[in-house]
Amino acid sequence: MEGKLLEMFEVGPCEDDYQLGFLIGQRFCNQIRSRLAGDLILQNQLLPFARTPHAQPLLKALSETNQKKFPRYWAELLGTADGSGVPVLDIILVNFRKEILPFISKTTMNSNADTTDDCSDVLIVGDSMAVAAHNEDANVALVGHTYLIKGKLSNGLSFIAYTYAGELPSCAFGLNSQGLAFTLNSVPPVEDEIAPAGIGRNFVSRDLLEATSTADALAVRPSNVCLLYLMKFKISLII
Fold this sequence. Notes:
Pfam families: AAT. It comes from Gossypium raimondii. With 239 residues, the protein is an alpha+beta fold. A six-stranded mixed β-sheet has the order 1-4-5-6-7-8, with helices on one face.
């Protein structure tokens, strides 16, 4: 059976980051709403947890930390929520799911719990080519709820990012006009290493889309929350 091609949405340059997120949310509102409605981890674990008093300090700290570190991407997240017409809380929860799930009591977890083995990658890098193969083993709720974003920024940089509906581009893989490409796997810390209110991996990967080089990416992006594979190559025919 012939597979369905992923839709690519070209967006930007925009007047601000909120508008960028709003246009993405507006364009993919049906996919975002469908993903959120069918995501059992969100519906059965994250949302019930978010309504408890125990969750409030964690959600507040996560939001404040990431908004302070990446105010542009936080505005993009809010724009995505408004553009798609879904509650901001739902968008926050799916973007921080990896950072929140360790704090949910094990007694409330069920068979729909998020897996730590989301994706796998094979990379081949040589003098004449660079190939990244990324296998999507993530939550079944994401099937049919992904798309490609081709973002053009006001500073002239552009990127292409494989994106989960409702989430910041990209917590999977992407590339930009600076010749930087990356693929991302989740590598959760062990229990005694978990600390609340860190930088979310979705914000790290969104920031990587604007890195100008591998040195830039490794120097100024937090590396303790995710495993990143970075490659530098010519992509003038793609962007």
